[in-house]
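G.,

No rush on this.
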Amino acid sequence: MAEAGRTARKPRWRHGRPFWGGLFVLLGGAEIMATVWAPLGVVLHVGMQNFIGYLIPIVIILCGLLLWFNPAQRLFYSLVAMVCALASFITSNMGGFIIGLLLTLTGGALAFAWTDEERNTGEPVAEEQPVTDPTIGDLSIVTGAKEQTEE
């Protein structure tokens, strides 16, 4: 019985936040962090490898988690993640050998574009009714009252 309640809550939780954007940002940050910890034969020493090389992927991972747990600030977190991903190209082995950079940029773009509005249900949209008000389109408001013509 408790299992059914959990499975019913998962889609609601996932759809109430930028889930896929946060997941891609997390994966990108983890991949960049893994390349920082790579053996010395694989590491490219480009840029500042010490403090900043570890700080950038940590900030990216935190942005991915915050996208999940604080979706109201998704614009800020996605922009910070994308800027850090671009900075990781210089500081963290070419952005995790380009793979982490691309994952983070994709996740940041997904999170930036995510909205919590209701999706279209597929129902046809009612056509707009023609306007029957005769004052629309004339300049009677500006020029004064319309003159009456007798026929």
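When you get to it, here's the other one too:
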Amino acid sequence: MLVSSNELSRIIEMAWEDRTPFEAIDQQFGLTESQVIHLMRTNLKRSSFNLWRSRVSGRKTKHLQLRSPEVQRAYCSRQYKHK
């Protein structure tokens, strides 16, 4: 799994985002959930990885099958405010 530093940064950002499902990362970058976990494990400090892993484990918004059909976007409506 070879990714550029810009792609790596974006994948890590998407993995941290609560509303971005693993399927969106797979669709955009071709990485499965297990590959994203491996990428996070190898590119984050151990404590950061553990924090991230406990945060996303069981989180319904990280998996499309578990997500409520009411959630139609990958980000919070307040996340990208335009002036």
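The longest helix spans residues 5-16. DSSP finds four helices and no strands in the chain.

Enjoy the weekend,
O.
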